């Protein structure tokens, strides 16, 4: 019903560069009905988004397999340890301290991915020193970059922007790194597809909740507030990438057109309790200002839809008496946006020509 209303609202979707999508044969979710174009719609994910998700997860699995021999070889333990340090030391030091500081971290990581010799303490190592080493480093960096969303951005929201800036620059030079980053985002937080994954027949509760990004400790699933906070950190980092401004006027490898695609896909799915409100307010607080500047009245129409019909849908799936923390936060955000006549730039965004 919402999809029909959106189609009638004449909000044109900007052109989005299509990712290659040709492998969805391994996905077993049941489909519900068919559109006029003959494509099958799902009530938990859009068909094209599911194709991309499946393709990226397949690529990620293949890439991890290509590095498996290097990862599991006991004789290479010392080399792996040095390469881990070559990845993690500059990664953990990324901050907005200064443009020069950020440039240094980017240079060190880019040099590693180029296969150049890099200094790790008193030793010099190369990712290409042994077959599988470069794949190991590239995937480790992509995975740990995405993990910064739930580990660092979760605690310090402003940290999203220097991390996003480095990810964007590396994505430009190393497209396979960017594909891996996106695959890890989707694996860690499938709501970024957006994908409300249903529980599969025979799938245990623990396996199902882990597929949604929940953590388990001693057989117990984490509390909902902690989970929502971590997912919000991941969403904030992803949104920060979308609005990051590449240096030297280079084309963005995953820019605002993908923000529009994501928001349109999200609004074409029925909202879920808690998580939809949590990710929506985080996404809009980071990307909303840039989207408003880029798309003008088109974005205002979609924001009006969120404030009216879609927010009512969110209210309807929120249990009475549940407190509704994320819903209240979204409502306050939308009301403030209306009162102030727009969405302000996110706090902590790097200024133009920062580096």
From TrEMBL:
Tell me where it mainly resides.
cytoplasm
Q: Name one GO biological process term.
A: protein transport
Fetch the InterPro entries from UniProt.
GLE1 (IPR012476), GLE1-like_sf (IPR038506)
Keywords in alphabetical order, please.
Coiled coil, Cytoplasm, mRNA transport, Nuclear pore complex, Nucleus, Protein transport, Translocation, Transport
Query: GO CC annotations?
Result: cytoplasm; nuclear pore
Subcellular location per the Swiss-Prot or TrEMBL entry: Cytoplasm; Nucleus, Nuclear pore complex
**Per the record, which residues fall in region Disordered?**
1-40
* Family the UniProt entry places it in: Belongs to the GLE1 family.
User: What is this protein's function?
Assistant: Required for the export of mRNAs containing poly(A) tails from the nucleus into the cytoplasm. May be involved in the terminal step of the mRNA transport through the nuclear pore complex (NPC).
Full protein name: mRNA export factor GLE1
- Species source reads Daphnia pulex (Water flea)
């Amino acid at each position: 019903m919402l999809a029909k209303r959106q189609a009638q609202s004449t909000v044109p979707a900007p052109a989005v560069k299509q990712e290659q999508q040709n492998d969805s044969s391994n996905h077993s979710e049941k489909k519900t009905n068919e559109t006029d174009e003959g494509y099958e719609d799902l009530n938990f994910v859009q068909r094209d988004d599911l194709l991309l998700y499946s393709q990226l997860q397949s690529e990620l699995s293949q890439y991890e397999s290509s590095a498996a021999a290097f990862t599991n070889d006991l004789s290479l333990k010392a080399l792996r340890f040095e390469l881990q340090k070559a990845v993690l030391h500059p990664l953990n030091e990324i901050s907005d301290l200064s443009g020069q500081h950020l440039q240094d971290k980017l240079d060190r990581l880019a040099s590693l991915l180029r296969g150049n010799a890099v200094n790790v303490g008193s030793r010099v190592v190369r990712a290409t020193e042994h077959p599988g080493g470069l794949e190991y480093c590239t995937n480790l960096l992509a995975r740990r970059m995405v993990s910064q969303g739930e580990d660092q951005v979760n605690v310090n929201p402003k940290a999203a922007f220097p991390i996003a800036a480095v990810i964007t620059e590396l994505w430009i030079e190393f497209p396979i790194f960017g594909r891996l980053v996106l695959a890890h985002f989707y694996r860690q937080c499938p709501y970024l597809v957006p994908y409300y994954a249903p529980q599969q027949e025979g799938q245990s509760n623990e396996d199902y909740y882990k597929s949604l990004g929940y953590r388990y400790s001693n057989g117990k699933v984490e509390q909902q507030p902690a989970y929502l906070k971590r997912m919000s950190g991941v969403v904030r980092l992803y949104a920060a990438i979308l609005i990051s401004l590449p240096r030297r006027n280079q084309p963005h490898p995953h820019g605002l057109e993908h923000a529009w695609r994501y928001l349109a896909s999200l609004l074409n799915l029925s909202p879920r309790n808690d998580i939809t409100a949590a990710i929506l307010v985080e996404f809009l607080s980071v990307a909303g200002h840039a989207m408003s500047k880029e798309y003008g009245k088109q974005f205002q129409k979609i924001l009006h839809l969120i404030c009216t019909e879609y927010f009512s849908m969110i209210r309807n799936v929120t249990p009475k008496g549940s407190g509704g923390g994320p819903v209240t936060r979204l409502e306050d955000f939308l009301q403030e946006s209306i009162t102030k006549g727009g969405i302000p730039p996110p706090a902590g965004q790097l200024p133009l020509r920062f580096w």
